[in-house]
Design brief:
- It is a single chain.
- This protein is mainly alpha-helical.
- It has one domain.
- 48% of the residues lie in helices and 7% in strands.
- The longest helix is centred in the first third of the chain and has 13 residues.
- The model has no long low-confidence stretch (mean pLDDT 85).
Length: 96
């Protein structure tokens, strides 16, 4: 049975852990994944049309910590140094 790319590297789909490059790669991997339609249906069933899991890429879309959808261009701002410090501080970690 074929594995989903998100199962092989779940941290790459986590907007609290990865980098902009990781997130864009995750979006690309999702859009090429044979399970994309299943994931889209699961996400919509669980969260509604424009909401999603907190700080994750799921079914080819990125979502903020509050579950709001981000388009790829908004990921640049989300990945900025200031936002990275805030996300890291919220987890109680020290930013690099």
């Amino acid at each position: 049975m074929e594995k989903r790319p998100c199962e092989q590297d779940p941290d790459g789909w986590d907007l609290d852990r990865g980098s902009l490059q990781d997130w864009l790669g995750a979006i690309r991997a999702c859009t090429e994944c044979p399970f994309l339609r299943e994931c889209q249906a699961d996400r919509q069933r669980m969260y509604g049309r424009d909401k999603g899991p907190a700080a994750m890429v799921w079914a080819g879309r990125a979502f903020t910590a509050s579950g709001d959808a981000l388009d790829p261009s908004a990921l640049v701002a989300y990945a900025s140094a200031g936002n990275r410090r805030r996300r890291t501080a919220a987890r109680g970690e020290v930013a690099a």
